Amino acid sequence: MTSLLIVLAMPDQVIAAYKDALMAHFPGLEISAVNHRDKIGPYIGRAEILVTFGAMMADEVYAQAPNLEWVQALGTGVDRITDQPSLGRHVIVTNVAGIHGPPVAEAAIGSMLALARNVPRSVRAQDRGRWDRFPARLIDGKTAVIYGIGVIAEALAPRLKALGMRVVGVSSAPRRLPGFDLMVPREQLVDALREADHFVLLTPHRPGTEASIGDTEFAAMKRGGFFINLGRGETVDDEALVRALGDGRLAGAALDVFSVEPLPEEHPFWSMPNVIVTPHLGGFYDEYPARALPVVEENLRRFLAGDREHMINVVQRGERTL
After folding, report:
1. Which residues of the chain have pLDDT under 70?
2. pLDDT tens profile 129-166
3. Would you say domain 3-99+285-310 falls under CATH 3.40.50.720?
4. Would you say the pTM of this structure is higher than 0.85?
5. Contact 318, 81 (CB under 8 A)
6. If one looks up domain 101-277 in CATH, what number appears?
């Protein structure tokens, strides 16, 4: 009997949604599920299939999986999967690319509006029972610079245009896309940021990009601009961001991803009044299992039938996607 292990650091009802759906469609599978990689011990040794998110993984998981043949990532990103030394070269890796455009685009817009209207200040005033009135800032007529142009940026740009913004894209492969007023190569990021009221980071983490967004990039932005990170935390120099937020160079930041997750309790981001911290929620929404499971189920059918050459969303080793 083929053994499948689900590893999801999520509420029990979310884990059950995946497990129950797969059991209903594939009654011949042995399916186990745990809510943290620390609990894989009884199952990982015989697991042939692993269903998880890259952010929830570590090299030690693969080191304990001698029978592993396939990893199905439930996100688009494959960080901590394809870059782990203990993952055998023969192991197939697939993802669910293509389903994250609307939810992450909405997360970006929500963050931009929350920062511009200083929603955290109003919520804190409500907690204290204070009637605190202050002028909001508009996003209408402002410039958004989006770094990292993929499915999410393609969904985000037209939405920002509908809100009256000017949209500049920064990409390793500039091309014409709906919703963008201008597209420039990534070598021109700093120049593009000179116009930025909002800097939206969507670029994935690749080797050599660690802490690549730092003092130079933040200093290039308009004073009082906002920074939104829905890409990867590893690409940002946290100390540089804290400095830019502390000295007023940036008016605020909305951060959904971090180099260490969960974000350590002692990290200054937690206590900074001009920072919104969300725990990697950008692509996490109520309909996620319903949109991800069709990809997982199709791949399972092909895998179990021995048709591995035609599995969908296969990620080539060394590839990093957002």
Report:
1. 318-322
2. 999 999 999 999 999 999 999 999 999 999 999 999 99
3. yes
4. yes
5. no
6. 3.40.50.720
